[in-house]
Amino acid sequence: MAVGTRPYLLLATTMLLWGSGFSSSKVIVDHLPHSVVAVLRFGGGALALLVALRLSREPAVVRRRDLLRAAGAGVLGVFVYNLLFFWGLSLAPAIDGSTIVPVMSPVLTTAFLLLTRRENASGARVAGLACGAAGAVIFFVGAGGAAGGGRLRLAGDLLFLLSAACWAGFTLLGRRVLTGIEPLRATTYATVSGAALLAVYSAPAATEVVWGDVPAHVWLNIVFVALGPTAVANLLYYRGIKAVGPSSASIMMFLVPVVGTTCSALFLGESFNPVQAAGAVVLLVGAVLAVGYR
């Protein structure tokens, strides 16, 4: 296997896992409070990563500065992101999140890189950002209309947008975090720090859950999202960022809507209304122009 293709295969696997995680998480949110779902997903992922780190042969000496950077990234990319994401998922369909988060995250990442002049602002990229913004507006208008689901769905979609902004920040921090620490250790520290904050935040809601009434299929989904879309996917994503950089890694996120919408339609029976569908197409075209053209 060529060295240049391996990071993209790892990132493609990440996107497949993330895409399938939207519908699986929606199943859990329908039975448990959104804050509890967040801590179950990332608490389980943190435990899996701690075991993997224990079994690895990576050097254990880590500078305090690198530890704090990784933990700080976890506050944004695990704690804040997941509070917003699962809150949105409790209000809006999974199919909305599987479009907004993976498409807007690279758009916002690219916008930041262009505004700070870390990358070139070609005509195609600027046009793509404008197209993406227009598509997002159309999508949100469709979500807020009577045919789209009303105010609750619109509120959920706006929370998805905020979570996308958090993930963009997490992506931008990724390369800096990885300058002095290996991907597995960085991913573990970030996940553990975020999961610990989620556990504190969700404790009151967790005490009100009747755990004996949680169906078996919900527990199966919890195990899946904790191991696949969380522990494995986040580790592969950090490895991909280290190899190809945040902008190139973001391009791969366009695979997530395809997988996510397919899973939402097949397993949950969800769909877009015509206005949302048009907005999603315009948004995706704009994102490809903004992110794909250098």
**Overall pLDDT, averaged?**
86
Q: Approximately how much beta-strand content do the residues carry?
A: under 5%
Oligomer: single chain
* Total number of strands: 0
The largest sheet is: none
Instruction: Tell me the span between the first and last alpha carbons.
Output: 26 Å
What is the helix/strand order?
A: HHHHHHHHHHH
Number of structurally distinct domains: 1
Q: What level of helicity do the residues show? A: over 70%
What is the CA-based Rg, rounded?
Answer: 18 Å
Catalogue the unreliable spans. none
Q: What structural class should be given to the helix and strand makeup?
A: mainly alpha
The general outline is globular
Q: List the total number of helices.
A: 11
Domain EamA: 8-140, 155-291
Family: Belongs to the EamA transporter family.
Transmembrane segments: 35-55, 67-89, 95-115, 127-148, 154-174, 186-206, 218-237, 249-269, 275-293
Keywords: Membrane, Transmembrane, Transmembrane helix
